[in-house]
Amino acid sequence: MRDYELMCVLDPELDEAGLEAQNERLKTLIAARSGDEVTVEPWGRRRLAYTIKGFRDGLYVLTRFKMPPTEADALDRGLRLSESVIRHLLIRPNAD
Question: What's the predicted TM-score (pTM) here?
Answer without folding.
Answer: 0.88
